[in-house]
Design a protein that fits this description.
heterotrimer; A alpha+beta (167); B alpha/beta (919); C alpha/beta (432); A: 167 residues; alpha+beta; Arc Repressor Mutant, subunit A; Glutaredoxin; 2 domains; four-stranded mixed β-sheet; 42% helix; 11% strand; elongated; C: 432 residues; alpha/beta; Rossmann fold; Ubiquitin-like (UB roll); de novo design (two linked rop proteins); 3 domains; four-stranded parallel β-sheet; binds flavin mononucleotide; binds iron/sulfur cluster; binds FE2/S2 (inorganic) cluster; NAD (chain C)
Chain lengths: 167, 919, 432
Amino acid sequence: MTETTSMQLVPTLSEEELRLIDAEIAHVPYRSAVAIDALKIVQQHRGWVSDESIKAIASYLDMSADELDGIATFYNLIFRRPVGDKVILLCNSISCWIKGCDGLQQKITEQLGVQFGETTSDNRYTLLPVTCLGACDKAPVMMVGEELHEDVAESSIVRILGGSTEP
Amino acid sequence: MPTIRIDGVEYEVQAGKNLLESCLSLGLDLPYFCWHPAMGSIGACRQCAVVQYQSEEDEQAGRGRIVMGCMTPVSDGAIFSLDGDRAREFREAIVESLMLNHPHDCPVCAEGGECHLQDMTVMVGHRDRHYRGRKNTHRNQYLGPLLNHEMNRCIACYRCTRYYRDYAGGTDLAAMAAHDHVYFGRHEEGILESEFAGNLVEVCPTGVFTDKTLVHDYTRKWDLQSAPSVCVGCGVGCNTLPGERYGRLKRIHNRFNVEVNGYFLCDRGRFGGGFVNNQQRLDYPGLRGDDGRYNAVDHHQALQHMAEACRNARVAAIGSPRTSIEANFLLRQLVGTDNFCPGFTELEQTLVNLALELQQQSSAVIADIRSVESADAVLILGEDLTNTAPRLALAVRQSVRNKAYEMAAGLGLETWQDAAIRNLAQDRRSPLFIAASGDTRLDDVAEQHLSLAPQDVARLGFEVAAAIRGGGGVGNSDTAAGRIAAALMEAKRPLVISGTSSGSPQALQAAAAVAEALAGAGHRPMLNFTVPEANSLGQAMLTGSAAPSLEAIAERCDRGEIDTLLVLENDLYHRTPAALADRLLHSDSAIIAVDGLDNRTTSAARLVLPAANFAETEGTLVSLEGRAQRHYPVFLPQGERRPSWVWLLACMKELGHPTATDLHQFDDITRACAATVPALAGITGAAPDHHFLNVGVKIPRQPHRYSGRTAMRADISVHEPKQPEDEESPLAFSMEGLNRWQPGALLPFVWAPGWNSNQSLHRFQSEVGGPLRGGTAGMRLLGAGTTGPTAAIDPPPSFTPVEGRWQLVARHRIFGSEELSALSPGICELVEPGFVEMRGADAHGLGLTEGDGVELDAGLATLAVKINDSIPPGCLGYAVGHAGTANLAAGASVSLAKATNWQRPPQVISTDRSGGGHV
Amino acid sequence: MSLDRPLTRNVRADRSPTDMAAYEANGGYQGLKAAVGKLSPADCLEILKDSNLRGRGGAGFPTGMKWSFVPMGDKCSPGDKYLICNADEMEPGTFKDRLLLECDPHQLIEGMIVAAYTLQANVAYIFIRAEYFKAAALLREAIAACHQKNYLGNNILGSDYSLEIHIHASAGRYICGEETALISSLEGKRANPRAKPPFPQVSGLWGRPTIVNNVETLCNVHHIIERGADWFKSLGLTEDAGTKMYGVSGRVKRPGCWELPMGTPVREILEEYAGGMADGYSLKGFLPGGGSTDFLVGEHLDLAMDYETIGKAGSRMGTGTMIILDDKTCPVGFVKNLIEFFARESCGFCTPCRDGLPWSAQVLDDIQHGRGRDEDMDTLARQVKFIGAIGNTHCALAPGAMEPLQSAMKYFPEAFEQHIQGSCRHCSGGGH
Ligand SMILES: Cc1cc2nc3c(=O)[nH]c(=O)nc-3n(C[C@H](O)[C@H](O)[C@H](O)COP(=O)(O)O)c2cc1C
Ligand code: SF4
Ligand code: FES
């Protein structure tokens, strides 16, 4: 029964996604152990993890959608709602706070018109807070996509974010 | 036994326990939430904190550190403080933290008055609120017609998901999110899939999961009148506590019996009693006039008519395997042994008697639930236990954990260290093999599931037995039988389970043969058989295999040999194909039906006597493991409804029947039956008789806060009426008396000072999780036999599919296969329309897809098709007991054709989609 | 080749990564060659025990002792145990592992091979935080390069020892750094910590014996095996042997991270390496080793930065990366930021942490924004007592969270009082 259902659902995962998930499965003793990797793989391809993705991944990993959702919603970097093309991870932990991350946040909000947790109307950016990025000597820091920006000054926000999306 | 010191007092405690359970066993109040006696410890809530000292100096110096009672083993010489300020302040702080986001909605909460969180709040003395912030709120989910979800009340103890997933094997409830946003629910709204979801009502320490059928018809625990009862949903015989108010059955809770059901019921048992309030309930005797219509008569007239019909007439009777031994016994006395049919069809009679005889003879241990849970290798032949004996399935599910316990023992971990043991064992399990005609709900934990036609299920069993006997075949890992034999031989406590549900006597014989082979090889195997109904085994004990079957009675009806046919609590149209029921009920005999609900059988009767149901009368039932158990009326029947035994006894007196002379009370019948029927000699031991007094007084059915009797009747009179006397039992219909220290069979509710919730149970147990102080309820009538079955039995020929024909195999459903529970609110929404299950290829060949109609044997039945590739080739599953399947019988061979003019049955639309409920 | 700075000898000024060729040219993989197939695992363990290496992940537990709890030889079927590198670095104010990972990935791989060999584990994992994309890519490259040279894979360098290293990039959540939560997460589950006992050394990943070590810890291992315990001990200035990655962040002239002898005095780190306080700022206090350590103040500047000394002073050396509280930054805001962090990162399993931390954060927020009341100080004190002791909670996250709060209340009570009275000199201006 499980197999028939998974056959119906798997096609919603692309071949590329399945190939990457299979590669992870090879390292672990049971399929559901790659739940987090699989969520990340799908997120990498689709930007976020929809309810349909949850069901498709769960059935591919022989687990229930409920269990997988419990895992997906635990981790803050699994996005269960659509995000913009790039996610801005603004560090607001202690060293960056000392060095003025609140000001950066305000500046970004002015620039993009979004608060923490929100996505710009043109869908380019989603702004999220993040735990200490391990670059405290270069505080304040933020990541845009996979790129780390160090010693960020309020004045450099416009440059980093490409100057668009005035509110 | 280790000695520990708590607040300066030394106690001897049991080794291998944790401090929390030890304290509770000692009667010391230590609050807790996440720990559960059946589920062990995880240390999440931190409520059970105590201070532990390393040494006496440590204690004197007031050092010591906070530890969790539930995570701390009791070791000799350990020193603790429960009462010290530090431990107390900590525990109060825990409740205060839990209360930050709790909505304080006790007045409108269905848990109010029996809420563990309320109890613990009072116990720790938390009163003043310091928090000034906002509360987190959550959205609730629709979880189906049985359970209500109110997440705001959640204290995140993780019990629900641990119970639902880890214990009961459900997959559709999970902990979501993190930090103070944790949420316990489903991925999407929808009906909870587990057959054991209802236990969440009792597992949740607050009001997140509550009984939706109660919420709609609400009464607080302290206003419920309740009595010890036994579930009539299946043969397991779980002990229950039904609660009543205003003459309505309000809810059913679990009644702890360490050997039968422990802490848990299945949802058929918990929610399936609602038929008691059904609108089809009969309140007055009805006599059919010449115009064919019923006229209500009073009970004197009814009795006159009944006696008249029996006097100087050829009378036969059909009893019922779902009602008490006493009623059946009286009926048999009334009509005579030769004229008494136990209510079985021929096949059922063969099966049930075989189940009885094989168990009587077998040298295997007939397993109670604790033994089932202790099994370290299990073979199930032909049963989808979750749907045929649900509580037993839950026990088998625990048995596969014995591998984990074994691994844990290697590391010195105690069994209560739940999370640690699960992490250690991961998916390693003790072997469970299931051979059945289609998938079963235990397949997820089975080492192997073999889908075979019933004949082949039996053959496999015989092969396993042969492999064990032959020695050589054992360990032949090429064959399933070899692997199963090897696993059973390797086990210390092997268990074989089969039953009557597949309609295959050979399956029973095969199972007994495996057990015998194991015994022959020096094992002490365990054996269990399911039976169809709550008193099937009692009925077989009463009547034996020679009693006339329904078919035999029908023949006599056909021949006109019966003037009057008495039918006791048995809807023949539910039990047998319509053709047979017609022969029984529409011959020239006058039909007198004694039953609780209006049904097709009562509609065929000339005289209908309204019978009290299980909640309104006493009775003894014999469960599948041969345990005689007594149930008591929770409340007295209204109108002219009487217990069946009362009707029958009155009739016998009316007739001046000689065997009735000395019978006056219920106990007299039990005693007479025990004296007359050797197999039932033990039933008087099921419970104390009505003379029993508990320290000089009766046992109250009402808790001492039971309120408002006067108010209930204020529109009639402000004078409180005298409560009815109960002359038949040691229980009283009042709050006067003593609900402590009594025999285990007489526990009407659990409550103890400071413990309003069901967690008060430990105050009635000899130790936490152990038997009730007053002893375990019920009397085992089956001891281990010694001889083993005598005759060697040849395996049946293997099944060969015949082109164009399909063999019917029985498919049971927890909701729908049993007649009465299916009439209960909530459950009735979950009963599927009748269906057949077939392989995709078979369906394809006939041009059928899921949901299409298929006609069986030109007119035998027309049913919706479900595709299920687990059905063995050549077989066709059919939904036992469901609408449209009454004419089908397991084993029959049918042809199939796509039904023309088929309309898909309408989807059942839930009457209530609201998530959060209000009282 | 600088022998007294073994961990950073390959670190370049521009922080560009060292590849296989450069790593080997500078003496790389000699530890591997000295150990695998040459020394017995038991000998390696002895050396390591002798070396006095203590875990660099924060708790400072002696590494050799931790490893000695792993069942060896017949007591455990081969390949049935695991080594995990904890590269989840998320402790607020901690930025040492990133440096090691990004500048010298081979060093970690070599340390892991020697460690796994010592433990006779055939599979090892690197659990790396999600945001360390660059480090993860470099590690993947390094692993591939090792396979080419047969430093990884089957029968390493002709020995009968085989090892695979897999990388697991996390999906967020600080709690994953806690070693048992990390194991839960690696198993694909919610990262709830596990109660101990059983310790991971006997029942860890997939129920098997497992060792979790910090990046920095593992980077030391092959150096020790190659050069010996005495050499390692000689590197440190105090009992706690070796060198340590120390860091300073906050308003100092040159925030940064340096490998220095274990036990280097705080003042030296702060003044010589970090260049002292930034102009216009003076020191008010500091957290010696990350966001979950207790404040120390000026009087502690001359203490040696090692586990013992800092522990005796009432704090913990933790990760060895200091966070400086300057005189213009409000201590209330400072601890509120930390408590909010820990409240947000609570896994939600146990009550004091899940519900207690948000309450503490709420009280601090009230105080910070002028809604404070006198009794709030009592509330905070009660919370500290309630949450702040190991054992009160299921894991060490919440007690760690209470450390900066309790010490701030001890050293800077006036900051709280001024706030409650509405007169904080830091915050009245609107800044911090
Ligand atoms: C909440 C919490 C977070 C932690 N985070 C990390 C971390 O990010 N990296 C790390 O190496 N250790 C972290 N630890 C310590 C680990 O639990 C563990 O002690 C360490 O990885 C062991 O390595 P070591 O013995 O080499 O120090 C954390 C501990 C706690 C309680
Ligand atoms: S202290 Fe408790 S809630 Fe907090 S992170 Fe640890 S286990 Fe989770
Ligand atoms: S009952 Fe002990 S921690 Fe919950």
